[in-house]
Amino acid sequence: MYEGETELYGTHKTPSDITSDDPLVVNWTEWNQHLYLMVYNATDWGNAFSVCQEKLSNAHLVYIESEEENSFVHSMLTESDKDAWIGLSDADEEGTWKWGSVVADFFVWSEWSNEPDGGTRENCAVKLQSDEPWYDIECYHEFYFICERDFL
Ligand SMILES: [Ca+2]
Ligand SMILES: [Ca+2]
After folding, report:
1. Which ligand is nearest to the CA of 124?
2. CA–CA dist 31, 24 (Å, integer)
3. pLDDT in tens, 121-152
4. Does residue 104 contact residue 77 with C-beta atoms inside 8 Å?
5. Against a cut of 0.85, is the pTM above it?
6. Is the distance from CB of 27 to CB of 18 less than 8 angstroms?
7. What's the 21 CA to ligand 1 centre distance in angstroms?
């Protein structure tokens, strides 16, 4: 169990459906002052975004802001043998990709597949376990997802 858990969860309201011994709470992985959690429920991007933000408090669907972080997140996918949503979307304005409300300036789009290639049809980004880069895809697909929170 993560030693900072009491602090992390003691000072924030925890939803009634997530208790302190819930695997959702204890399975966070620390990397570079941030905590990451693979959520083993396949859902659409919008719901994944909401779950990270609302059910886990102070968390968000993972934001990937460096090559190193991308490699770390990739290791989570290969370990769990899953593809996963990341917190990147251009649903608000086509071509303007944002992590939450912050316009992104770091990308690892798949070049061989010429991503992002979906225009107004594909507005959410997924990371596959098969390779490190990202793909835009329709938001209604269902994938597992990774939540991230700042290390406290
Ligand atoms: Ca798009
Ligand atoms: Ca695409």
Report:
1. 1
2. 17
3. 999 999 999 999 999 999 999 999 999 987 65
4. no
5. no
6. no
7. 39
